[in-house]
Amino acid sequence: MAESDVARETVGRSKDIKSGRGGSAGPACPTIAGDTRAGHGGAGEGSAMIASDLETGISRLREMIEAAEAVVPFTGAGISTECGIPDFRSPGGIWTKMRPIEFGDFLASQEARDESWRRRFAMEDQFGGAKPGRGHRALASLYKAGKVPGIITQNIDNLHQVSGFSAIDVVELHGNTTYATCLDCAKRYELAWVRERFTASGRSPDCPQCSGYIKTATVSFGQSMPEDAMRRAQELAESSDLFLAIGSSLVVWPAAGFPLAAKRAGARLAIINRDATDFDDVADLVVHDDIGAVLSPFIAH
Ligand SMILES: [Zn+2]
């Protein structure tokens, strides 16, 4: 949904992170693959356990969730594809067809701001009615059961909140596209409000309060990562005893650093993703299957 201006903060590939060349946050962790921590026990500890089939994956995941006290999910685009929201970064995705509008251009030009909003409204017409999928509902069930203290997401579609998470417990690394804010005074504006004015004048409106520019509450290419969200994500990852990486290829840094931060702090790591990730070899469980199929048994009825 309207990733028309979402950041792809690629600083280093995850392979670089694992070898300690990937970035500046936290100590390098060159030996994570051999980092078998005592005290967790159980099959697959310290080495990847790639589920041979869906049933095995679900049953192992159930054991891990039952044994855990603080499950922290980390979600990427893969959890929302069954909701009809495409993964814009995938091959053939929108970024291979349309150049994203960078933050500097948005600031510099009324035309860029108009184009940014034009794209956003087009997205709204296509994906605005998206509803939470099975993965969202399963995680919301675990949250309501008290298993999940908070969730970290790369998605901007607001579907975790719609599925039942309190907004305060959703850490959005790339912001949220379902509302807008003034870049100067931070006042919140709803999309309908912006659209009404855009339709009337053909131009993106400025903040009536301070004349600042109004932009979707997303993190654009060229815009710095939100410090508060980064800090909260780090804290959540380190406080978890089970970290679930779901629907993310885990190649985008710094977001991809969180599974390793959790692992370093002693958590187990489960990866649920249709395709292999660079972190599969350090995970305690890997399930390569449809996310909705893997998580639907965890929906509370
Ligand atoms: Zn303002």
Task: Give a summary of the structure in a few sentences.
This protein has 301 residues and is α/β, with parallel strands linked by helices. It has a single domain (14-298), classed as TPP-binding domain (Rossmann fold, 3-Layer(aba) Sandwich). The chain contains ten helices and nine strands.
List the helices and strands and how they pair.
Elements: H1 14-18, H2 54-67, E1 71-75, H3 103-108, H4 110-127, H5 134-144, E2 151-153, H6 159-163, E3 170-172, E4 175-182, E5 188-190, H7 191-201, E6 214-218, H8 227-239, E7 242-246, H9 257-264, E8 268-272, E9 285-287, H10 291-295
Parallel strand pairs: 1-2, 1-7, 2-3, 7-8, 8-9
Antiparallel strand pairs: 4-5, 4-6
Helix pairs in contact: 8-9
Which tags fit this structure?
alpha/beta; Rossmann fold; 10 helices; disordered N terminus
Bound ligands:
zinc ion
Helix content: 25-40%
Q: Uncertain segments of ≥5 residues (pLDDT<50)?
A: 1-46
Number of helices: 10
Shape, per Cα inertia axes: elongated
Instruction: Note the beta-strand portion.
Output: 5-15%
How does the helix and strand content classify structurally? alpha/beta
CATH superfamily grouping? TPP-binding domain
Order of helices and strands: HHEHHHEHEEEHEHEHEEH
Spatial strand sequence of the major β-sheet: 3-2-1-7-8-9
- Determine the mean pLDDT: 85
Here the CATH topology equals Rossmann fold
Which CATH class?
Alpha Beta
Query: Radius of gyration in whole Å, from Cα?
Result: 20 Å
Report, as a whole number of angstroms, the end-to-end distance. Answer: 28 Å
Question: At CATH's second level, what is the architecture?
Answer: 3-Layer(aba) Sandwich
Q: How many beta-strand segments?
A: 9
Total number of domains: 1
Main beta-sheet annotation: 6 strands, parallel
